[in-house]
Amino acid sequence: MDINEYIESRRHSIKRIPSEIRERWNNRIVKNSWHLQGMDGALQYLGSYGNGISATKVISLAICAESEGYPEVALGFWNKAFDIETGKTPPTERQAKHRKPPTSLPKVPVEVSTTTTPEWKTRIFVPELPSHLQPGSIVTMQAIDAPFDRDYYINSPEYWGQAKRDGQRRVIVATKDKIYYQSRSTKPKEQPTVEINRLLLDVANKIGTFVLDGELYYRSVTGSEHRTAPQADAINIAQGKADTSTVAVFAIFKALWLSDRDLTTATECDRISVGEEIGRYLASDFFEVLPTARTQEEKAALAAKQESEGREGEIWVQKNCAYVGGKDTRSATMVRTKYSLELDLIITNLSLTKAAGRPFGAIQVAQEVNGKLVAMGSVGTGFCQTEMEEIAYRHTANPGKVKITVRSQGLTETGKLWHGRFVGLCDD
């Protein structure tokens, strides 16, 4: 089955466009003018709101876009649905040139960009990069819980400090022709925004191919950081700024490649310095060069600022360490100190509720210890309506298999979460 046959077979599977899809079209797509950006508009939506989205919802969005007279936006959603259900990536460039929109729809002239079309299911190869830095193959350095208190790292001349951002880890491979995005678990990801993608392309055409390691987060009108766009949207709504768009920001930790130089063979201070160099080219509202505290005074100020602002904590890394993918538990080259407890827990049940529109009341969670599940209590805050729907959908589809990240102020005497708060789904 090719993409055209798929579309015709699925177009009538949705009898009526759900009201929630119409709401998302108006409050997310139209509000951000993504309906005017062709297939890029669909990619924008999927990058911000499509984490773990079901094929049914994507098809509904495609049909909604068609009904509104935006066939190229619809095609972007059809491509995603086709990818989800078949595991195949449609030949997008050929489609854009040869496929005709449904005859019942008005023809809307939209320039179709092919530089940002995802190719997740094909084998990606960037000729100038070594195998360990190919998109989808990069194993990031990951912090372990610090074995000493933060004063040790503040006073140690061997460690540098960076703020711990509240987002999702991303690796960016930027070439002159295309930008690739990868999660911590090496999964390919959609572009966050067209603006970020265009800036990366512009800079890659000036300085050549580069690879960045960092964190993607969404900023609300208050300046708060969030893992997802819906979480930031919820803050905007609470502040009476529902019409204000959230801003996707990429925080640069370090660089792994620039100008034919493999920085994974260099020291961490070199990786950070080159990341700062690339960051100067990308200077805008959409990129942040994460400040690095190098001196004892800077490190003490970093810790004080993080604590006073109620941030997650800090990352401490040995400035002269070699690049070690994954968690280096033996040498503790990268560690994290936190002001709250953060755990990845398994959903065991969703409590019932009589509240209108809410699929559940709270999330019952447990921790896996030596192959057994130990109940940790419940989590009843931190999620928005969209996230609740996604949690309910995933738990129903795979009960006992879904993990979420939970942040709490510690544990009670009985080992339960103390003021647990939902942070995000563990799938990045």
Question: In summary, what is this structure?
Answer:
The protein is α+β, with helices and mostly antiparallel strands.
Report on the architecture of this protein.
With 428 residues, the chain is α+β, with helices and mostly antiparallel strands. The protein has 3 domains: 3-98, no CATH class; 131-338, D-amino Acid Aminotransferase, Chain A, domain 1 (2-Layer Sandwich), CATH 3.30.470.30; 341-425, Beta Barrel (OB fold (Dihydrolipoamide Acetyltransferase, E2P)), CATH 2.40.50. Helices cover 32% and strands 24% of the residues. It contains 12 helices and 20 strands. The chain has helices spanning 3-10, 19-30, 39-49, 55-67, 71-86, 92-98, 150-155, 194-207, 229-238, 268-281, 296-308, 385-397; strands at residues 141-142, 144-145, 159-163, 168-174, 179-183, 188-189, 210-219, 225-226, 247-258, 261-262, 287-289, 292-293, 313-318, 326-327, 334-338, 341-350, 363-369, 372-379, 403-408, 421-425. The strands form 4 sheets. Strands 4, 5, 6, 7, 8, 9, 10 and 11 form an 8-stranded mixed sheet that branches. A hairpin with a 5-residue loop joins strand 7 and strand 8. The longest helix is centred in the first third of the chain and has 16 residues, at 71-86. It is globular. 39% of the residues are buried. Mean pLDDT is 88; it is low at 93-122.
